[in-house]
Amino acid sequence: MRFNNVVKITGLAAAGLLALTACGGATAGPTTAGPESSSSSSASNSPSASASPLASTSSEGAGTSSGSYKVAAWALPISEAGDKLGSLKGDSFSVDIYQVATDVASKDSMFVDKETKENLLKKGDPVVYLNYVVTNTSSADIPLSHSLITPSAKYTDWKYMGGMPSDSSSDGYKKHGLSSSGTKLKEEAPFVLKPGESFNIAENFAYTAGKETEIEATMTPAAADGKLDHDKKEKAETTVTLK
């Protein structure tokens, strides 16, 4: 098997290059993306969407209503803006997936193909914002650490290992009424997600219209001592098609 390499350029040292390897070939098996994402080819135009304000202006108090969802006391208001692409379901949770907006990258990403020297997400390349609404579908509280339940996306033909680069600027999230953290400021773990309660969290990556995208989510609850309870870990995944 031939390996392609990706170099991650850190902001601290111009000479410091971290090589990431990737499986060669046209198509890779579906895997999850890291928190930052991008496509290997940005073959679309660069549409820019208008901001999508959050569906509710407040989420104070347990069980605050936000559109179709009941917001956890520690969570930010939930946005239902955009097109619903689908859902995934675990044993104890579900995730509704919304394509909220398209925009352009505010700067070059940190990932460069070592062989071609091409940046995998250049300034001005189109990016898409997905918002994930996570709901506790069980009859028991789910105590979560700061890692929450964080879905991530990766194109099904993404050939590099290690996830897809994204636009790391927070400005795009603010512009489109989204959050990459999911929680209010000053809230502390454990974040207890009660039965029927929800929170939302978003990500962006390079946009190619009509692209098949695998979404995977992992839920590892916090134990009484605050550590992750890996014995109760749940994973769920689905494949959606970008608009």
What does this protein look like?
- With 243 residues, the protein is mainly beta.
- It is built from 1 helix and 14 strands; from the N terminus they run ββββββββββαββββ.
- It has one helix at residues 171-175; strands at residues 3-9, 17-23, 64-66, 69-71, 83-89, 93-104, 111-113, 126-136, 142-144, 152-155, 191-193, 197-206, 212-219, 234-241.
- The strands form 4 sheets. The protein has a 6-stranded mixed β-sheet, with no helix packed on it. It has a 3-stranded antiparallel β-sheet with strand order 2-1-7, with no helix packed on it. The protein has a 3-stranded antiparallel β-sheet with strand order 10-13-14, with no helix packed on it.
- Strand 3 and strand 4 form a beta hairpin.
- The radius of gyration is 18 Å and the shape is globular.
Give me the secondary-structure topology.
Layout: E1 3-9, E2 17-23, E3 64-66, E4 69-71, E5 83-89, E6 93-104, E7 111-113, E8 126-136, E9 142-144, E10 152-155, H1 171-175, E11 191-193, E12 197-206, E13 212-219, E14 234-241
Parallel strand pairs: 4-12
Antiparallel strand pairs: 1-2, 1-7, 3-4, 5-6, 6-8, 8-12, 9-11, 10-13, 13-14
